[in-house]
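stage 2 :: seqdesign
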């Protein structure tokens, strides 16, 4: 995993490789990928997106980049800043599974070694402790002070099984060897 995510900040000055046929075929296989051709760039997805002011490329532009077969889409910050809130998917008048497409792009970017290191650390933490974030003594004391019950202990056998079934474990092991 590298820290090179979000390097694609604008089309200005870029040499863009359009219509990479291999990439178009990969995109078509993503959940929702087949429906991209009906996107008519209405921007309704972007208008409702809660991170639209925090990203360099908007979600409707991502949809167009995919149609054009621009693999550079994997270098955009949009796919990682997306909160998976599903607003765009619910608003799309064409019924495109926009959020699901973005989730697929996260997977493709990760496979290419592009993405924030924090995601990898979260995944490792889940595998090691059952929690995406380690609970510190300080947080536990705050829970106690407010009379909240202790967090239930995770079932690590289930976590391990899920990591195996989803391929997460293999992915992290592969990462360690890079
Ligand atoms: S809302 Fe749907 S049709 Fe409109 S730009 Fe977004 S993806 Fe395309
Ligand atoms: S799912 Fe992602 S892209 Fe869609 S509206 Fe939410 S944050 Fe924006």
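stage 2 :: out
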């Amino acid at each position: 995993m590298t820290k090179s995510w979000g390097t694609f900040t604008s089309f200005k000055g870029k040499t863009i490789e359009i219509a990479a046929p291999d990439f178009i075929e990969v995109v078509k296989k993503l959940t929702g990928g087949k429906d991209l051709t009906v996107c008519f760039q209405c921007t309704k997805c972007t208008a409702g997106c809660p991170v639209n002011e925090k990203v360099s490329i908007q979600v409707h532009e991502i949809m167009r980049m995919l149609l054009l077969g621009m693999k550079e889409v994997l270098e955009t910050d949009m796919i990682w800043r997306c909160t998976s809130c599903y607003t765009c998917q619910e608003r799309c008048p064409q019924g495109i599974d926009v959020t699901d497409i973005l989730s697929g792009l996260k997977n493709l970017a990760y496979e290419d070694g592009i993405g924030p290191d924090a995601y990898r650390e979260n995944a490792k933490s889940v595998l090691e402790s059952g929690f995406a974030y380690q609970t510190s003594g300080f947080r536990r004391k705050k829970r106690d002070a407010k009379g909240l019950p202790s967090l239930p202990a995770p079932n690590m056998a289930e976590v391990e099984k899920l990591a195996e079934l989803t391929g997460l474990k293999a992915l992290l092991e592969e990462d360690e060897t890079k």
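stage 3 :: structure notes
- The chain has two domains: 21-111, 117-176.
- Residues 15 and 72 are 10 Å apart (CA to CA).
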